[in-house]
Amino acid sequence: SEMCIRDRQEQQHPAAVGIIHRRLALVAETSESKLEHSHAALKAFEEAEHGPGIATGHEGLGDAFLDAGDLERAHEHAAESVRLHEEIGRQRGLSMQYRKLAQVLSARGEYDKALELVVRAHRAQAELEIPDHYQMARSAAILIDIAATHASAEGRELAWTERSGLLMAAQHGATLMREN
What we know:
There is one protein chain. The chain has 180 residues and is mostly helical. The chain has helices at 2-12, 14-26, 31-48, 51-68, 71-88, 91-107, 111-126, 133-153, 160-179. The chain contains nine helices and no strands. The radius of gyration is 18 Å and the shape is globular. It starts with a helix and ends with a helix.
């Protein structure tokens, strides 16, 4: 009886099932569980033909594959999420996807492309009708992380000018987070 009710609810509201699986993926304790819920979320969004949900489903799979260390599949899904957000014109979502794709590119060692995308994310967030200060601060934090990782991969320390610029970005980001 309980299974019949659940099956009926899933048939009537598949996008809601996608949302539930996306949330479960966000709190999953293992990479396997995160992947399982992310796949289920995308499947539910596709069944519902819910464009924004499909883009979010690809975002979730990108995150899950990045956590699992599968950088090729992480890139595939993160890039698809960017493409879908561009296609449906969701600027707020697109700005966050630029940042997520930047994280994947950084993990792949593509630091210049990653830095370019995270700056693009920050600018897109600033240009929203109501700027997303929280996401701008997160972009600043990712910028710092990518720059430090890039320098480390080159076997060097960040230059004083680089550290100063990143410190200013961090301070600005902290101020924005406190205000919002």
